[in-house]
From TrEMBL, chains A, B, C, D:
Domain of life: Bacteria
Major subcellular site: cytoplasm
CDD domains in alphabetical order: AGPR_1_actinobacAGPR_like, AGPR_1_C
Keywords of the record: Amino-acid biosynthesis, Arginine biosynthesis, Cytoplasm, NADP, Oxidoreductase
A Pfam family that the UniProt record links to this protein: Semialdhyde_dh
Reaction(s) catalysed by this chain's protein: N-acetyl-L-glutamate 5-semialdehyde + phosphate + NADP(+) = N-acetyl-L-glutamyl 5-phosphate + NADPH + H(+)
This protein's name: N-acetyl-gamma-glutamyl-phosphate reductase
Function of the molecule: Catalyzes the NADPH-dependent reduction of N-acetyl-5-glutamyl phosphate to yield N-acetyl-L-glutamate 5-semialdehyde.
The gene coding this protein: argC
UniProt similarity note: Belongs to the NAGSA dehydrogenase family. Type 1 subfamily.
Length: 325, 325, 325, 325
């Protein structure tokens, strides 16, 4: 069986990672790739290491009215542009939107695949979760559902590699020399990622995520994302680890570790790592979550969602071990 | 006037940075450098760019009973080893201990120079603060003393460059390939840095630092340290900034910025940057502090302390602007 | 069909990369992993992202007399130690030696798989080429065999990521802080890699590689290797590119590009990239070769050799596209 | 004595480094800073760590007809734009042009300060040498003038940090994620830097630099530049080192080392390091040169030239030791 797949947004980091994963997928056949900045060039010009079978595919200019026959479309468009662009895609084409415009939107299923796979199977419009929410919610879900922490006053201190900010930065903000040897907090008390997390925390806990604090930081590395989450609860470390091991039993991509996870453990893979350190005397639980922001935080998660909606094994094309070192 | 200066621990990063600063100091004359791994070699073998005037100084094997005539000794020894080593230094030699053994210890003055310079003048035994406490306390002191935040339940999420972990790592833990493209939390809920911070927060606030949480992370960069500190208080951002600007008025090394500070702003300098983002509706104040972990977090601070105890202008040898990019 | 595979030297970078590739190989079944520093621990302790099927495999202490039933052994031992260690492996076990002790040694086949695959099929003792020679010889072979350059007076300016120097450096030489933001030539006019290259250049050209110059440099990146090779010959750029395209026609892993290749193009893959720039008026040909030093420069090449000696398709387990960015 | 100094091109890396050095210069007083992208903002907005005395200086829009009273202007403008811009600067203002437009141009003195300081004293229009030529010519000058190597068929394999390519790259080419973990040759057999080197090699040797080859590479580090230069000559390593030590005797910024130099040795300083490895049997001399591309390769060299034309001690403002680590 061959499933005909397309990517729009091939020039960006999310689109490029989707290409890498789809190229190695046993059931997906890439037949369409669109991207504004590279339109008209064969894939191999843009991706010199692309597998031979895809080398000659010519990058198309995006036009939702002129798509070839497709079973699934992966969309990796800048936030704010995908709503309109994807509205014109025929209903017969399943969509996984890696971008941020359709999360918790009517008609779209929020694709938190490691936690709610059953909600995703059989759907045709999937909104991939954001990279920060994925790492955070994967770490918190077992505690919230077990009542080991409360949903209020959670503090998320998040750190991401520079690829999370997108391609090189037309304004030089993410140039190598400016970004290397530099660590930058940004977006303090802004709310761009907050509704997605508040809504999901409320769904997981049945309570209100009031008082949520989220502080992202840019770290001088290409890939990788870690959240350090400070929660209120009187569980022990062992209780947290046990809850997570139970919650994710049988789930293929989430690993619960005794040690604090490091971003390199996940690099290039679709894995999530979670761990915990708790001090009941202080009513404190520290939850940690690690993903590759382009893997489980974007394209890997999208392929996992695509597997689910195509009724394929969830791990198809996603079994590659992380790169080390 | 020439002040005769020595360094013990010249082979480590703190000792090396002390050498760089002392080499450019208008009143200090380096006459002694000791270090186990380099003993017997001229300084220029170990530091190929050392100024000509110091090139021929031969690195000594450390022996506190055989010191030359010295006015000040900078000690940058591994934690746990300086107490005994420095006890045998003659009383006539002033000491600034960059290491951690003498902080809040009887007979030693805790050298938080940007905050308490008057406590330091005239003393002869100074314990340099730790790099994490410096960044944290510099950010918090204005708020604690003004009562804008409470001393309890403070959460410090700290990020440091790899030089904070010391030389290359005999066990390979800080090898380039293992550390690059990797972000690592460590030491969760351990207490090595806690007493220093708890004691000082209590002194600054007059209250108890109960519930303090401190989580350090290793960031793949050589230098730089940022703390993101989550506090309880109902001040506004403007009130916090104003308090800090008032508190540090006339102080030469602390800069209060409207924007979140970045580690590169301080690189190679003795500057501290602090900023704040507050949400009174949530009783939340986020304080941020940036230093170069080897500058204000170690050797720069030590030179500042040495200036104070020698009754020199506080900025002598420390006016170099940060490296950019 | 399942082929029973072992790795000795699992703790090193070459062994770890072999593990990653074998874990995704469709015909290899890892049943044995040995490594001194990790002996007694399950693989997942050392490699937190290892696939579930291998997670519980316990790392053995190396003992060639106590091997389990194996079809192939991959050896990634420090240079100078594998000759003795591998001499005691039973004849029934095929060996691919990633280390340097058996190159151009009697009884062992020099496994330059992209160039001489037919010499490798059916053999049982394969010496993997060194990472520098692979990149160099892959770039030069088409020109040498076509007589477009002469074999004498070739100058190889080589640049490798730090993983090429092995694990973190017990003496701190490859510590992050010492190595980051640093570029280091080393081993000038030394001869450790020379005989392998001289012998092979002579074999390819039928002439003498007299006057060969080889200068390696350590570049502050984890993976990647580029050689810039200055040769004497009066071919044009087009002639060189055409010769290489002809020479590697049908070969799956070598890509000839019009643009100068970049190390990131190969990262995490078994690909080699070669390109050329020539100026016949100056009798000059510049040949460039790029590999991932741990992929085609070590473990990827070893798996390719193992495929050849097991009469499997050459690309089994090696089709993963490079990581970007 | 205070010398009134201006900088045009303050927003770029060269201009920023000039600012850092001038801020610490004992005789220079910065009274003017111009830069298109930052015009109208105080310096401290753009450079948060600038010394207090300069913090309030407002960045001007460049207008050569509306300059304040200046003794010297440092120009760091994009190549191709400075010829016209600087032609309108009054004759009374001395100029050091860090950019490339005036090298070996009539009416301008080529400011190779470590080699020809006497040619620079008393002049008013100085063309700073390019970063690659500085490193190359500093390494070669002692050998060329002594006849230890010939001027023909020299091969320069050059490696520079990313800051050498200028600010972050409007087109994303030098974005962090694209550039990190990547090593890129570029500009093969192009001639942009060649005339400057050919002319100077001819002047130093009295012969022709025919057959010169120059291959630059971008290395994933912010600062630092190394050239590895392959020359023909039958000198020994010792003869080369001796020649260089003699040639640079008494010169303050050039260091001749037995070991191959590393880029980090020069980081943040105005130093040049040179070393040699020769094999008379092969008629081969390898010369190596290291500079900080923004220091001796740009702004440091410019300050040195400014010292010379102002008849100040050559080392004023340039004695800072390199940053380590």
């Amino acid at each position: 069986m061959s499933i005909r797949v397309g990517i729009v947004g091939i020039s960006g980091f999310g689109g490029g990672e989707a290409l890498r994963l789809i190229a190695g997928h046993p059931a997906f056949d890439l037949v369409y790739a669109a991207g504004d900045s590279s339109a008209g060039r064969p894939l191999i010009d843009r991706f010199p290491g692309v597998p031979h079978k895809l080398a000659g595919l010519v990058i198309a200019k995006w036009d939702p009215e002129a798509l070839p026959d497709l079973d699934i479309l992966f969309a990796s468009l800048p936030t704010g542009t995908s709503a309109e662009a994807l509205a014109r895609v025929p209903d017969s084409v399943k969509i996984v939107d890696i971008g941020g415009d359709h999360r918790h939107v009517d008609g779209w299923t929020y694709g938190l695949a490691d936690i709610w796979p059953e909600r995703i199977r059989g759907r045709t419009r999937i909104a991939n979760p954001g990279c920060f929410p994925v790492a955070t919610l994967t770490a918190l879900a077992p505690l919230l559902t077990a009542g080991l922490i409360g949903p209020g006053n959670i503090v998320i201190d998040a750190k991401t590699g520079i690829s999370g900010a997108g391609r090189g930065g037309g304004d030089g903000r993410f140039g190598y020399a400016e970004t290397n040897e530099n660590l930058q907090p940004y977006g303090l008390l802004e709310h761009v990622h907050m509704p997605e997390m508040e809504t999901t925390i409320a769904q997981l806990s049945g309570g209100s995520a009031a008082g949520l604090v989220f502080t992202p930081h840019l770290v001088p590395m290409t890939r990788g994302l870690l959240v350090t989450v400070y929660c209120r609860g009187n569980a022990t470390t062992t209780q947290c680890l046990d809850a997570a091991r139970g919650f994710y039993a049988g789930r293929p991509f989430v690993r619960v570790t005794d040690r604090p996870p490091q971003t390199k453990w996940a690099s290039g893979s679709n894995l999530s790592f979670v761990s915990y350190a708790a001090d009941p005397d202080r009513n404190l639980v520290i939850a940690m979550g690690v993903v590759d922001n382009l893997g489980k935080g974007a394209a890997g998660h999208a392929v996992q969602n695509a597997n689910l909606i195509c009724d394929l094994p969830e791990t198809f094309g996603l079994e590659g071990a992380p790169i080390w070192p």
